[in-house]
Amino acid sequence: MAKARSSFICQNCGSVTNRWAGRCDACGEWNTIVEEVEGGGIASGPAALQSRRKGRIVPLVPLSGETQDAPRFASGIAELDRVTGGGFVKGSALLVGGDPGIGKSTLLMQAAAALANNGQRVIYVSGEEAVAQVRLRAQRLGLASAPVELAAETNVEDILATLKDGARPALVILDSIQTLWTDLAESAPGTVTQVRAAAQSMIKFAKGNGSAIVLVGHVTKDGQIAGPRVVEHMVDAVLYFEGEGGHAYRILRTIKNRFGATDEIGVFEMSDKGLREVANPSALFLGERNDKAPGAAVFAGMEGTRPVLVEIQALVAPSPLGTPRRAVVGWDSARLAMVLAVLEAHCGVKLGVHDIYLNVAGGYRISEPAADLAVAAALVSSLSGLALPADCVYFGEISLSGAVRPVAHSVQRVKEAEKLGFRQAVHPVSGEEPATGQMQAAFHPKSLVDLVARIVGDTGAKRGGGERKGGAQR
Ligand code: TYD
Ligand code: MG
Known about the structure:
By secondary structure, the chain is α/β, with parallel strands linked by helices. The chain contains 12 helices and 23 strands.
């Protein structure tokens, strides 16, 4: 056998170099480059064999032709099925990522038990916890009687032999991919080479056998699935399970899905009996609301096909510092800077000497620009000390010119607000005019000035007029 050469592989992005460095040139991460033996890598093994073997002719087929709908089976957990696009797909691989302790194992144990109780063969392979620990969790969840087949194993070859023995399992859960190792690669478990080789073997099994497999992956502090970003493109779907410390709810988010939409979320609440589905997330996020306080505006947002109402809280206070503070939780701080600039430049709202704190209630994260209008309303309300109407929702995008631009799905946003008892909506006119059934009032600001005028009343309506109180003047 030829002498095994070693190469240096970044554990973050998977790029290969031939010498060690403190910082990866490709992704810029520090201390992620690890030496791995090349001879034991996956690329060199089968590829080296293939070069000696004569190629086989594979049949070429037209694009059109008989295809079956991706055959799915629902887990019975509605929030999980919504995110996967209707259930697990046979012969597919799904990666579930998330911080340690967020509840990945709990969620998958609940899904496994639900499917097993439905008569499907489900195998749960735990590489992190001993059988006793998994059993203990199942007991806590009240699922100990479910006929889930359990193993604590980390070697890929042993796992594959076990899976091929007996009837074809409908679902195989591998918790977690970072603990798996295969004889094919010589690197330590958890390294890119091992994770990639293990994932490849498991995915090959899924495609060949028609079982659905779920790989659990831990996420690094900067939000990437640890080491194996490389796994993300190998699997058919990637879900992230996220949550804020101190809040009981958890959000399951689709990052990639070859069989469905990618902007869906599933909402769960962690209780002492495991994860509980939250069918109406708006009610959850609005739960802790204080109607009378200035600086709070309700944003009618969308997550995929589902409207979500959240409260945006702003606190604007005179700053003792030369450079005022801007702190944002749950929103984009660059976007806040833009809204502040538009308020200053076009509406005469002077915020340059104020500290500004912005928070999205419940620890929720908004990524839509449609939140601009609600943020502006909350800021103006806090600065002026005037509380916004408690039964009003806001949505709309603000452009740098100060114009309020329409956003998609107005009808669904307004409908959701109506359902939760809101009676007013402030949003730009869009092509699809909402059927304002019970909405008593819809206000359509053309520009941000209109919104400011509405909040502070006509006295402050004039350009550069500032606010009634709260020290808008410098
Ligand atoms: P776990 O599923 O082990 O997380 P992960 O697999 O993502 O690392 O969840 C562990 C956390 O969930 C732990 O902090 C305890 C909490 N938990 C509950 O609050 N209630 C429960 O019923 C269970 C099983 C866990
Ligand atoms: Mg776990």
